[in-house]
Write a structure and sequence with these properties.
- The complex is a heterodimer of chains A (555) and B (425).
- By secondary structure, chain A is of the alpha/beta class.
- Chain A has a single domain, classed as Metal-dependent hydrolases (TIM Barrel, Alpha-Beta Barrel), CATH 3.20.20.
- Chain A contains 19 helices and 26 strands.
- In chain A, β22 and β23 form a beta hairpin.
- In chain A, α4 packs across α19, α6 packs across α8 and α10 packs parallel to α12.
- The longest helix of chain A is centred in the middle third of the chain and has 16 residues.
- Chain A is globular, with a radius of gyration of 22 Å.
- Chain B has two domains: 172 residues, Rossmann fold (3-Layer(aba) Sandwich), CATH 3.40.50.740; 169 residues, Dimethylsulfoxide Reductase, domain 2 (3-Layer(aba) Sandwich), CATH 3.40.228.10.
- Chain B is built from twelve helices and 22 strands.
- In chain B, the strands form five sheets. Chain B has a nine-stranded mixed beta sheet, covered by helices on one side. In chain B, strands 11-10-9-14-15 form a five-stranded parallel beta sheet, sandwiched between helices. Chain B has a three-stranded antiparallel beta sheet with strand order 1-2-3.
- Classes of the chains: A alpha/beta (555), B alpha/beta (425).
- Chains A and B meet through α1, α2, β7, β8 and α3 of A and α3, α4, β8, α5 and α10 of B.
């Protein structure tokens, strides 16, 4: 089957193609070089006047795993308000802030996304995370596994074990849990909260282990580097949501000591203490730090106004903020000497000073960060807003008039505390293609995704040109997944199941015996039962492949 | 993967599917009749030992043995004719729950688990105010005080104390002595633990009074009363102080033990007490469940549809109604017009009495008061086939192994057969 996508305006930043009209060819699910003149083309799509990009990749979205399912359980109102009836093609589901897996997959595809990465997989909960991702249709998926408050790592560190043992443990964890990256959430803080510590700054010792967050960042970023894991250490910094947390965020960037580091939902970590209300934007300092630190990347975690739910591994911060929950309910959970989770429904209001300034801070970071290859478009779904808000966010970035019209509606004191109105930058389509396609693929080591060169998987999104960028990005005309037309005019026309992406760096198997002993002695399950087999993954994922991407340790 | 069936071969580190603890350290002697050799309990021993007689593995229509294909076709005919089928029981593993949810979606059916009346008490708390909870290994390592509310735990979860409280070695040192207080029930006979164990007598039906008193005392509010829930004020004062003094207190309960009208309000008061205590110290709830795959089916339904048990697909979209989509109500006139009953762990969990057409997917050996229209004997996850089951704390999904050769279909297999037959109609 040879397809020709003819005459579209192509944005393919991985190949520096910026709005060039050209034909694309697809064979057996992959993009191929133009065929010989005598080859039969089975189907031609006339894309003249259309904008063509690779399928979008959400590199940080909470789509599966225990805490999202707790959010679902807590929010029947979210599901009653947004039912999705069964069709001849698609399953019934429901929900907007905490949608069911079917609703998640269909809606991502209907917006032109073809891959999603769950950023907070607890090792003990990894099987559930993969089960949920497996039941998420249409898109490829992968997970970042959480370390940094687990007692096994903290004991290794407290005992002064060498980096090699930590590397072995990190690599074993990736094998066992079938993930593609390593995440750390409030380094050591989830553990400290179990000892009744309520705050933990970057250089404060854990009350039991004596290990500092800075130490955890150092050994984990070193492990990621030594093992050659493509995705840098994915860091949810200390002091989430607290005024003045800019200092610990800047300290966190430096704590990687020159190694690659990704700061996630950085908007929530870019707050100063200026002004009458002791809450201010530190976006300029954060953007400057990102601009001047080539080893650092970030995703924004933009907030948008309305009802959502926040779900995080950061029990310490979530418990601290639980009085702000709206509606007022919360779940805080300590989990298996491994990690934890906290879930609070949240309603961001444009007439609330703090929420309004959070909105502005996120946009300031987007507009002040100079290198679009190192800043990623996320709302930290659902924490800043449900992912379905992405088209709106794209318009805010691309359309200054639209942005300033929204700014003018905010709490007046928040307007006075932001430079946003003076920022003239408007993102181009080329830059949006970097933020949402080319850069996430590169950051994750997905060589066959996020671009439109020969050999890439034929994940392709085609938009109708529209000056209203929100409308344009909300309903693509065509979405192809592996060369199959899955969405037409913003509606699913074919259900696919995608594949899992993983890495499996090498390790000394001696660590397995230590883990078996540790689990047998202290835990209520066997270490071997954490290990997820490949045939389990295939069964979870409706038969989809489990891809292993290469790791390249430094030589 | 089938384990070796050599005589006397023993499988180690077997995960047990017969209660919500899903202990994964059993040694089981293999063979047609399995025998638990180590780390068993009063529930696991007999449950593993059951082996169906040859005639018990035969599918039946109206009591007559037929092929599996014939039962699937008849089940499909009945489901196709039903306007509001109830898929109840739901005693199955992850794959069975995925299949049952898919079938309900396709047929416009209603899903309700056999333990939902108890489970929904916790769900109502979660939906209204939430909670602060913990998991089994945290209890094993951190708890210095365990309050057991409203029941003895051991009759439903026999190895709970052995696995979570008896250990003196923890991550944080040796010589742990966790104090255990049974609230509203006697100390179970024969329970000996390294730390002190005692009981506080009170009326569980009125427990919310005592919980309210403790919350008031902790908040420094005056309380004018002589007693609460049948216990003197000094008892509540002492318990509140003890809980506040604990470094990591845990309050465990099984919602099934709170079997009285609006017991969810008592559990909510318990969760709010725990929340109050966390202003100063750490304290966490441990809502124990997971037996008969109750948390498993609830969890799977939640992620697929957004709603847990007691959800209808009758309108095409999922709608949960905790009061109305309960099996006992749906079996009243004007409710469901067909019952499909799923129970693969325990052949004694039989379908409720009803005149409705009945399709039963039951553990081989299940006996019925009234012969079902269709009976598909199924294997047991973790015995006859592999599977996955969520544990009591809803975090860990443990892999279950196949321990013997079996021709019995899994629940998921049986539902796929029905779906194939539906597709041909």
């Amino acid at each position: 089957m040879l397809l020709k996508l003819a005459g579209g305006r192509v944005y393919d930043p991985a190949h520096k193609v910026d709005g060039v009209v050209r034909d694309l060819y697809v064979r057996d699910g992959k993009i191929v070089a133009p065929p010989a003149a005598d080859e039969r083309i089975d189907r031609v799509y006339d894309l003249s006047g259309r904008v063509v990009m690779a399928g979008a990749i959400d590199m940080h979205t909470h789509i599966g795993g225990g805490k999202l399912n707790i959010a679902r359980a807590m929010l029947p109102e979210d599901h009653r308000g947004d039912p999705m009836a069964r069709t001849a093609l698609t399953r019934a589901s429901a929900g907007r802030a905490a949608p069911g897996t079917f609703a998640t997959g269909y809606r991502y595809a209907e917006m032109g996304y073809t891959a999603c990465f769950e950023p907070a997989v607890l090792p003990v909960n990894a099987r559930q995370a993969h089960l949920e991702m497996g039941d998420t249709p249409m898109v490829d998926k992968g997970g970042y596994v959480m370390l940094g408050s687990d007692d096994f790592l903290l004991r290794l560190m407290a005992a002064g074990e060498d980096q090699q043992r930590i590397n072995d443990y990190v690599a074993w964890t990736l094998h066992a849990t079938r993930c593609i990256g390593i995440k750390v959430v409030n380094p050591g803080g989830i553990s400290a909260f179990k000892f009744n510590q309520r705050m933990l700054d970057l250089d404060e010792p854990n009350p039991y282990y004596g290990v500092r967050p800075r130490d955890i960042l150092r050994v984990l970023s070193r492990a990621v580097h030594d093992l050659g894991i493509p995705h840098p250490l994915h860091v949810h910094s200390s002091n989430l949501g607290l005024p003045g947390n800019v200092d610990s965020t800047l300290g966190t960037i430096r704590a990687a000591e020159g190694l690659s580091i990704h700061l996630t939902h950085i908007q929530f970590h870019s707050y100063g203490t200026e002004g009458d209300r002791k809450f201010s934007s530190a976006a300029a300092r954060i953007a400057e730090a990102i601009n001047s630190t080539p080893n650092a990347t970030c995703d924004v975690g933009q907030i948008l106004f309305g009802q959502t739910v926040t779900a995080s591994g950061d029990t310490m911060a979530q418990h601290l903020h639980s009085d702000h929950a709206s509606p007022r309910k919360s779940v805080i959970m300590d989990i298996e000497c491994d990690a934890g989770c906290g879930v609070l429904p949240f309603r961001y209001r444009d007439q609330n000073f703090v929420n309004a300034l959070q909105w502005a801070i996120g946009l300031e970071i987007f507009l002040l960060a100079k290198d679009p290859w190192r800043v990623f478009l996320t709302t930290d779904h659902p924490n800043g807003a449900p992912f379905t808000a992405y088209p709106h966010l794209i318009r805010l970035l691309m359309d200054r008039t639209f942005r300033n019209a929204h700014l003018a509606r905010l709490h007046p004191e928040a307007q006075a505390m932001t430079t946003l109105g003076s920022l003239e930058r408007e993102y181009s389509l080329y830059e949006i293609a970097i933020l949402t396609r080319a850069a996430p693929a590169r950051l994750l080591g997905l060589t066959a995704m996020g671009h439109l060169g020969a050999g890439a998987g034929a994940d392709i999104t085609v938009y109708r040109e529209d000056a209203d960028r929100e409308r344009m990005f909300a309903t693509p005309e065509y979405v192809f997944k592996d060369g199959v037309l899955i969405v037409r005019d913003g509606k699913v026309v074919q259900v696919t199941w995608g594949r899992y992406h993983t890495v499996r760096p090498e390790y000394d198997p001696g660590i397995e015996r230590r883990l078996e002993e540790h689990f047998a002695r202290y835990h209520t399950l066997r270490a071997a039962h954490l290990v997820i087999a490949e045939d389990e993954m295939r069964a979870f994922g409706h038969g989809g492949d489990v891809l292993t991407h290469p790791c390249r340790p430094p030589t | 993967m089938p384990a070796s069936s050599k005589p006397n071969a023993e499988a180690l580190d077997v995960a047990c599917p017969f209660c919500g603890l899903v202990c994964d350290d059993l040694s089981v002697e293999l063979g047609t009749r399995l025998a638990v050799r180590a780390n068993g309990c009063p529930i696991a021993g007999p449950a593993f030992a059951r082996a169906p007689a040859p005639e018990e593995v035969l599918p039946r229509i109206g009591g007559r043995p037929v092929t599996l294909t014939a039962t699937a076709a008849e089940a499909a005919r009945l489901l196709g004719a039903a306007r509001q089928p109830l898929i109840g029981g739901l005693g199955t593993d992850v794959a069975g729950a995925r299949a049952a949810t898919r079938l309900a979606d396709r047929c416009g059916g209603i899903l309700d688990h056999m333990n939902a009346t108890a489970m929904m008490r916790n769900t109502m708390v979660l939906q209204d105010t939430g909670w602060i909870t913990t998991t089994l290994s945290e209890v094993r390592n951190r708890a210095d005080l365990l309050v057991v509310a409203g029941g003895d735990i051991v009759s439903r979860f026999p190895r709970f104390f052995e696995r979570c409280i008896s250990n003196e070695t923890t991550l944080f040192g040796d010589g742990r002595r966790c104090e255990v207080i049974f609230l509203g029930v006697e100390v179970p006979a024969g329970l000996t633990l390294p730390g002190p164990v005692r009981s506080i007598g009170c009326d569980v039906l009125r427990l919310s009074e005592g919980l309210g008193v403790m919350r008031a005392l902790l908040a420094g509010r005056p309380v004018v009363a002589d007693e609460a829930a049948g216990a003197p004020m000094a008892v509540w004062r002492e318990l509140a102080e003890r809980m506040r003094a604990a470094r990591y207190g845990v309050v465990a309960w099984a919602a099934a033990d709170f079997d009285f009208p609006h017991a969810e309000l008592t559990l909510q008061a318990l969760c709010e007490l725990i929340r109050d205590l966390n202003r100063d110290t750490r304290c966490a709830g441990l809502p124990l469940g997971g037996s008969d795959g109750d948390l498993t089916s609830d969890t799977v339904q939640l992620w697929q549809s957004g709603f847990g048990s007691r959800t209808s697909f009758g309108t095409g979209a999922p709608v949960q109604d905790i009061r109305h989509y309960a099996t006992d109500r749906l079996l009243e006139p004007g409710g469901a017009d067909l019952l499909m009953w799923i129970s693969s762990f325990d052949e004694s969990r039989t379908p409720p009495v009803t005149d409705l057409p009945l399709i039963a997917l039951g553990r081989a050996g299940m006996r019925f008061d009234r012969e079902p229209a269709v009976f598909m004997p199924v294997g047991t996850p973790g015995v006859d086939h592999a599977g996955h089951l969520f544990r009591a704390d809803r975090v860990v999904a443990l892999p279950l192994r196949q321990l013997r050769e079996s021709a019995l279909p899994s629940v998921a297999d049986a539902i796929v057969a029905i779906e194939l037959a539906l597709g041909e109609r």
